[in-house]
């Protein structure tokens, strides 16, 4: 598995990976409203690292470097359980200073378990009334 910085040529495939992964994982969300263009909006001004094998993009992580914040971590559904997410977290750790932070939707139990298994700690659960709750998580 190769971990590297994303380049512009990756973006068409990253858009598809992001949309497919979100539709697969966010079963509580309205997938009809999700689009390929969401990737560009949701990763603007972020440093993107990809995992690939044999020329196939397996996942990506997007980092907002000024705040040591992980904004997105997505693994293609076909690549789940192969260590892709853990390798991408390691790449983030190599790139950013600690403590690193992220937010994880409270309903996303699979992701919460994954982060905790990788040494992340829940700090506080937040969310405005009527909006989706999420956990602020930290890695020291």
TrEMBL record:
The keyword Acyltransferase is annotated on this UniProt entry: yes
Domain N-acetyltransferase stretches: 1-140
UniProt GO molecular function: acyltransferase activity, transferring groups other than amino-acyl groups
InterPro entries hit by this protein: Acyl_CoA_acyltransferase (IPR016181), Bact_Acetyltransf (IPR050832), GNAT_dom (IPR000182)
Domain of life: Bacteria
Keywords, alphabetical: Acyltransferase, Transferase
Keyword check for Acyltransferase: yes
Record protein name field: N-acetyltransferase
């Amino acid at each position: 598995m190769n971990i590297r910085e994303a380049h512009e040529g990756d973006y068409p495939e990253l858009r598809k990976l992001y949309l497919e992964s979100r539709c697969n994982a966010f079963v509580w969300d309205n997938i009809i409203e999700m689009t390929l263009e969401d990737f560009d909006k949701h990763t603007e001004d972020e440093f993107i690292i990809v995992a690939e094998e044999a020329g196939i993009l397996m996942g990506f992580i997007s980092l907002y470097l000024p705040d040591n914040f992980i904004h997105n971590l997505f693994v293609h559904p076909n690549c789940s359980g192969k260590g892709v997410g853990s390798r991408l977290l390691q790449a983030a750790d190599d790139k950013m200073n600690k403590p690193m932070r992220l937010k994880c939707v409270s309903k996303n139990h699979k992701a919460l378990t994954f982060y905790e298994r990788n040494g992340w700690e829940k700090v506080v659960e937040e969310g405005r009334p009527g909006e989706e709750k999420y956990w602020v998580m930290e890695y020291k």
